[in-house]
């Protein structure tokens, strides 16, 4: 039994069991991102749609001003699609930063969890004209799955939302040109595993490009077989990425108070 399983039974008064578990998983995800060095001080977001919260869609997101390593289940913000708080909190919302997330959540019913980062290698690949190549182990599995969105400056204009959605289409991955990475998932473990694969692909590309000599290309016939070859990796649990998420949670070795936080 994981720490999240243990704490899920201790539902705070006035909160649904679903929301409490969602808060625990998202807080743990922020801590994992911090552990990997994928955080951007107080900026960028991992947002999560709540599925049983009435007629108005609501989302969990990090409080503006807190480091990823300070996120807890209790201090996560609950907001609506406009970035307005739907529950009391002393922390502000970075509504401008939620523009990308709001667009994707609203347009994609399957995008319950949305990750956006500004990691070094992710931004580096986003700045290259050719984008992500498919010539390393991780990138090869992303053949045909990565979309691109042209850079329009700092993403604060609401009218860009429609173009972001159009660029992403039905894909799981989006590289924002000159900007950063985005991945979506059906839940926290799904989005985390998806993002990890994309980030690893960028890491390896950046390192191979720093070495002398030509890269070894992957034949199209091999790329075509990878989707079928990948299927055994996702067996064992009902939710894609769950074992991966649980393993990282064990590695993180969070304490109950550290993950739960104070009401």
UniProtKB/TrEMBL annotation:
Cross-referenced InterPro entries: Aldolase-II_Adducin_sf, Aldolase_II/adducin_N, Aldolase_II/adducin_N_sf
A family per Pfam: Aldolase_II
GO molecular function: actin filament binding
Organism superkingdom: Bacteria
Residue ranges of every copy of the Class II aldolase/adducin N-terminal domain listed in the record: 24-206
Gene3D superfamilies listed in its UniProt record: Class II aldolase/adducin N-terminal domain (3.40.225.10)
GO CC, any one term: cytoskeleton
NCBIfam families in UniProt: PRK07044.1
Protein family (similarity comment): Belongs to the aldolase class II family.
Protein name in UniProt: Class II aldolase/adducin family protein
Species of origin: Acidovorax cavernicola
